[in-house]
Amino acid sequence: MEINGLTRTCGLLGNPVEHTLSPAIHNTLAELTGINLTYLPFLVEKEKLGDAVQGARALHILGLNVTVPHKEKILPFLTAVDELAEKIGAVNTLVSTEDGYKGYNTDMPGLYRAMASDGISVEGEKILLLGAGGVARAVAVMLCDKAGQITILNRTVERAAAIAEEVNAYAGRRVATALALEQYTSLPDKDYLTIQATNVGMYPDTEKVLISDMDFYEKIRVGYDLIYNPGETRFMRQVKAAGGEAYNGLKMLLYQGIIAFELWNDCKITEEQAAVVYRKLLNGL
Questions:
Q1: Positions in the chain whose pLDDT score sits under 70
Q2: What pLDDT score was predicted for residue 151?
Q3: Residues 6+ apart with CB under 8 A from 115
Q4: What are the two backbone dihedrals, phi and then psi, of residue 110, each rounded to the nearest 5 degrees?
Q5: So what's the pLDDT on residue 284?
Q6: What is the model's pTM?
């Protein structure tokens, strides 16, 4: 697409940004929709984050994505925050408004749409959530109104319990409980939807896994690993070996980007267009 005086700019604030796949998502979407937009990665040190937001505003940058380590630290520099992002306590998308940038979290709606595209419903499901970091907390917050139950498994059970307590307060019911990793043997069922929300197994440490015992994987009907590099983690392999379905986090990356693009441009991306971008991401990996 030709860049001219009418081209709008969007981009990514993060550190590092060298290996991001976001430009492939947004520049491809711009081509597919005919929207005159270009997307660039911007390396921003944490002490310069406020300056970066102010500078982006002065340059009339239409919208921004935010990645590590800025998702929580960017909140004070925004004029408004979407309700879900406020609950999660992290923002990954900025949308320009008359007063400044409004913050959204499209990571979690992106995960929801990714699962829906794979034919996976979370309504009333028994969910196992591996990990108790920021990503796991965000997943639990997003799912607390939809899931039948959420069991958070973590090495440090106190961290999992704190998230469960917070999620139950949001939900207004006792939907979440916490267990230490080794307590998985007490789980009563064998048809859990399990979300792996840690970085264990991410490249280059691809043979690591939180729980190695195959008895655990016998309890999983569907496993979702939020890691997308490698394309098949050891967690995924063990889910499949036990007879379950397994998915990686690449579609979550895709749909969080699509939702951001839709917010910036007030448009709707079709599933056919999403499929084109997904194939491009697969080729890029």
A1: none
A2: 98
A3: 121, 122, 224, 247
A4: -65, -40
A5: 80
A6: 0.94
Instruction: Looking at 118-152, list the stretches that DSSP marks H as alpha helix, in order from N- to C-terminal side.
Output: 134-143
Rounded Cα–Cα distance for residues 119 and 26 (Å): 25
Question: What number of other Cβ atoms are within 10 A of residue 13's Cβ?
Answer: 23
What's the sign of the alpha-carbon dihedral 195, 196, 198, 202? negative
As given in the structure block, the two tokens for residue 137 are 């907390």
Q: What is the pLDDT of residue 189?
A: 84
List beta partners, residue 223: 194, 246
* pLDDT given at position 183: 96
Q: Which residues are catalytic?
A: 71
In this prediction, residue 1 carries a pLDDT of 72
- The helix/strand/coil state of 248 is coil
Count Cβ neighbours within 10 Å for each residue of 191-212 and write b for 16 or more, e otherwise: ebbbbbbbebbbeeeeeebbbe
Distant-in-sequence contacts of 117-120, Cβ < 8 A, 24+ apart: 117/251, 117/255, 117/271, 117/274, 118/247, 118/251, 120/193, 120/222, 120/224, 120/247
Q: What are the tokens at 211?
A: 């729980």
Burial-class residue 181 by CB neighbours within 10 Å (0-12, 13-18, 19+).
Answer: middle
* pLDDT score for 236: 98
